[in-house]
Amino acid sequence: MSKCPPRLKMTNRLHVLRAEHRLTQEQLAREIGVTRATIGAIEGGGYNPSLELAFRLARFFNTEINAIFSVEEEK
Amino acid sequence: MKRWDSILLKVFLYGLPAVIILAILSYSYGLGKHSQISDKLTLLNGFVGLTLALWMLLLIYLNIRLMFSGSFRNKVLARITFIKEADEREVMLTGKATKTTFLTSLAILIFLFFLSCFQVSFYRVPPEKAVNGKTGFISLGFGFSLLESPTKSQADQAVQKKDIFSYTGLPVSTTTVILALIIWQIVSYNYSMRRLIKCHDARRISLEP
Fold first, then answer.
1. What is the tens place of the pLDDT at every residue in B41-90?
2. Does B87 touch chain A (CB under 8 A)?
3. With left for phi above 0 and alpha for psi between -120 and 50, is residue A33 left, alpha or beta?
């Protein structure tokens, strides 16, 4: 029988990058084209964005996706 | 959505007050409050009657458009049911809420279907028709008819029975069931959506340091 793969927990540094750029959630949301609630949900870990949105965020902050999002195995 | 549809939709909505006035007027005439109708009232009645006819024609057209035009459906029904899809997260939440609504509605429909099929009857027959000296009977059945049959079956009419309790399907009208299902769909979707948003927010708060 195949073993279940370990669950991955996604973490992000979005709030750090946002603070560095002195942006509010509302301002970032407007720039990216989503709602403020979505930015809040991503920062809090309540919502994992799509690849497209992740790339949009990375492009906006002029960085790599890995610099914003990272994964770790859940214990 | 076509521009023509948009105009017709506005005409339909603005015609609604006229229809309500007509309903009130018709009700008043029905009660016999206006024994002598003046020419002006007759003219008004005719005008509102014509409006009602046009309004009903529009209603039929718009209903057909709702069934066959995707864009029209998305615009009109999304507004009526308060569906908001501002970004991908809301699209995902809408999907989840819609799934919940679909499955609960399906469960209700299955339940209603069985309720409408069950037939239970407690009855008494005259002493001369007693079986083994017993006059009380319980009849259980499961019926399905494709079309409505308002008349009682010949077998029912032949037996001179006195019903004590009889259940032969849902005691509410088809219109009531359809209206209840429409309301249920809207309420269920909005409740699910609100709960999902709350769950997301709660998870976000619990993760914050």
1. 677 777 777 877 888 888 899 999 989 988 888 888 888 888 888 899 99
2. yes
3. left
Contact (CB<8Å) A46/B204: yes
- This prediction has a pTM of 0.73
Q: Which stretches of chain B drop beneath a pLDDT of 50?
A: 207-209
DSSP letter string, B130-164:
-BTTB-EEEEEEE---SS---SPPHHHHHS--EEE
Q: Give B187 to chain A, closest Cα distance, Å.
A: 23
| Residue pairs spanning A and B at CB distance below 8 A | 43
B208 Cβ under 8 Å from any chain A Cβ: yes
> Residue B173: CB partners within 8 Å, gap ≥ 6?
none
Residue B11 domain flag: yes
Which amino acid would we find at residue B65?
R
**Which residues sit opposite B168 in a β-bridge?**
B119
Which residue of chain A comes nearest to B202, CA vs CA?
A: A46
Residue B124: what are its φ and ψ, rounded to 5°? Answer: -120, 145
Tell me whether residue B56 is in a domain.
Answer: yes
Q: Is B94 helix (H, G, I), strand (E, B) or coil?
A: helix
> ipTM greater than 0.90, yes or no?
no
Structural domains in chain A, sorted by start: 11-64 (1.10.260.40)
Distance, in Å, from the CA atom of A47 to the CA atom of B200, rounded to the nearest integer, reads 8
